[in-house]
Structure formats: C-alpha cells, structure tokens
TrEMBL record:
Database matches in InterPro entries: Homeodomain-like_sf (IPR009057), HTH-type_TetR-like_transc_reg (IPR050109), HTH_TetR (IPR001647), Tet_transcr_reg_TetR-rel_C_sf (IPR036271)
Protein name, UniProt field: TetR/AcrR family transcriptional regulator
Lineage summary: Bacteria, Bacillati, Actinomycetota, Actinomycetes, Jiangellales
Organism from which the protein derives: Jiangella ureilytica
Repeat in keyword set: no
Tagged with keyword Transcription regulation: yes
Length: 190
C-alpha cells in the first residue's frame, strides 16, 4: 500500500497492482484511494480524476509490455519465437484485468470521452515502432517492417479482445499460431 500523500510514482505502482488483483469494477475514487492507502484528493491531485488514474495505469502496463517485448527480442534471435513467447505473456489470465481496462478506456476514448482521450496519444505508433525494430533486424526494409508491425498489433489486439469476450484460450491460441506461421513466411531469408 502507498502511504497517505505518497508520491505519484508510488501511487501509480500501487494502482497497477490493485487493478491486477481486483479489476476496476464500479469502485468509486474514494474506494480506490482507501485501497491504495491514500485519499481521493491525492489521486485527483496527481491524476486529475479516476479516469486519469486509469489512463496512467494503462500507459504503465503498455510500457511494461513494450519493455518485455524488447527483452524477448534481445534475448531471442528468432523473431517468430519471440512473438510466440510475447503472445503467451499477453494472453496470461493475470493480465486480463489490465486488458479489460485497456479496451474499456480505448472504447471510451474513441467515443470522445475527454477523460479517456489522452490514451489515444501514441496508442498505435508506440507499438508499431517497438514491433518494427525486430522486423528490421530480421531483414525487412523500414516501410515493410512498419506495415507488418501494424498488422501484428491489430491481430494481437483483436485476438485479445476475442479472448476476453469468449474465454476460448485454445481457439485464440490456435488463431495466433496460424497468424505467426503466416508472418514467419514473410520474413526475409537470412
């Protein structure tokens, strides 16, 4: 738990852990603050609103996932195997509360909700850039790498949404494996 009046980063880390353990549900900002060991006023001071807090939680989780992708890409010479390992992590049920929050806020931002709109800043491009790097190292030119990265991002997000809606892990994993095989066929031969 964060101490009352704790720093923004400490509160954010506590909020990420809280969402992972509890989801978001219909909790008020006061309930969330109490669970984090702070006041709702401190959360408003640091994040502006409950939605502002949730946007920062999503951004933090997205950054952690991009860091994991970078680690896997650096440790794994084969980009296809790195993609498989990354998918296994993304599809982990432990991340489902975060992913539900992501899709909820993404939908609200797309509907023009002013509190959620900041989530759209870089929500695609940061991932395209992160995913394109390993593709360029595998031999794709920059334009092709970015197009492939965008496609991979769309497939992963679509399959995550499918997984959250259906719970059909086997079906979604089979679809991702099919995509991975198609993706593998596009890689330049070394």
């Amino acid at each position: 738990m964060a101490e009352a009046g704790g720093g923004k980063e400490r509160l954010l880390r506590a909020a990420v852990d809280y969402v992972a353990a509890n989801g978001i549900g219909e909790r008020s900002l006061r309930e969330i603050a109490a669970a984090l060991g702070t006041s709702h006023r401190m959360l408003i001071y640091h994040f502006g609103s409950k939605e502002g807090l949730f946007v920062e939680v999503v951004r933090t989780m997205e950054r952690q996932q991009r860091d994991l992708l970078a680690e896997l890409s650096a440790a794994e010479d084969d980009p296809v195997e790195a993609a498989r390992r990354f998918w296994a992590r993304l599809a982990d049920p432990g991340l489902w509360p975060h992913e539900r929050l992501f899709f909820e806020l993404y939908g609200r931002a797309l509907q023009g909700d002013p509190a959620a709109l900041p989530l759209l800043d870089g929500i695609v491009d940061t991932w395209v850039t992160a995913l394109a790097g390993p593709l360029e190292r595998a031999g794709h030119d920059a334009a092709t790498a970015r197009a492939q990265a965008r496609l991979g991002l769309a497939v992963a997000r679509g399959l995550l949404l499918d997984l959250l809606a259906t719970g059909d892990r086997a079906g979604v994993d089979a679809a991702m494996e099919q995509f991975t095989a198609m993706y593998s066929a596009t890689l330049p031969r070394r």
